[in-house]
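Quick one: structure tokens for this chain, please?
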Amino acid sequence: MKTVGIAAEYNPFHCGHAFQIRECRRMAGEDAAVLAVMSGDFVQRGEAAVFHKFARAEAACRCGADLVVELPLPWSLSSAEGFAAGAVGLMHALRADAISFGSETGNAEELEELAELFSRPAFPEAVRESMKRHPNRSFPAARQALAEELLGKKLPVLQQPNNILAVEYLKTIRQQQWDIRPLPVLRAGSGHDDPERSAMPSAAYIREQLRCGSRPETAIPDEAEAVFRREIEEGRAVFNRRTQELCLLSRLRFLPEESFRNLPDAQDGAGERLYAALQKTASYESFLQAAASKRFPLSRIRRMALCAALGLQVGDNAGFPGYVRILAFNEKGRRLLHERGEAAEVPLLTKAAHIRKLSGKAVRDFQLGARAHDCYTLFYPAENEGNCGEDWRKGPAVC
């Protein structure tokens, strides 16, 4: 069975995501299985997802994905490089034949050219040297400037979030010499974080509408909308930012400075800067804004703050995930698990009791995710839904 992998957050699942799945099957064949590797309860932008991972996986599975697995927390809260490596690593573990990704250009040759450049052994050190010469430049800005210099052309492609991730997917595949072919899908509708309404609005616009009490049903497929309506009615939707921020800020104020120095991505004084900002601000948002700068973009600061609150340390996102956690599947997904499961390079977890298959770092990764889910459930408006241990009890949705 041909298998196409998609790395996603589905925060929440919307019509643009359904379009991508349809395009996957158009390009790979209608009989192809779609494997979604999805972030858990906390996402790369450094905040909680609006619906928990089990609901978002169910919605995706009811709208065309055949198998949804979790991207463990350390990779979900990584930069583009770590996020991509974790997602592609899980696709490889399940023997995916291709990877589909949204792209603002859809130009596979240009993306491959950049992946080849970024994979050169001397390139990362050259970027670091550039940052020393230009201390106010962030890593993405320094990398783009160096790439433009070496290739002799402007590269606006490196300012677009989907393209940045696409290059990182291709870089990982190239470096590991994995046989996974790219299937870029030209992005349709609004930009990644575009807050404006359009015929196919972004997830950012939909999240804001949900937080304001609106129900953007036309932007969400009916099957997904039914899942999300259930979650809202049962008090498991996470819309109140104030609740989240108080919880995270209180956790951060208990941490010693050493914890901030040992965070992922805390080099170049970023950890110390984060700790210093915490000491002189009274709200979560003002703390983030005080820590951010040209060299340390707000997106990086948000991820670091969330990593600190959830107990992640430097090295947690090293390498590739050591297990595959199944969140949802349909009949085709079941066949895929049967066909690829025995040959998978890492254990498959269809229930938490399978943690006995794990050892070492994989156990820590799972436990980090389980504790993060316990934190996440505190954000629910329904108090009786916030009990500990749900991650250990919940099984995959069968769609």
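The CA atoms of residues 352 and 393 lie 7 Å apart.
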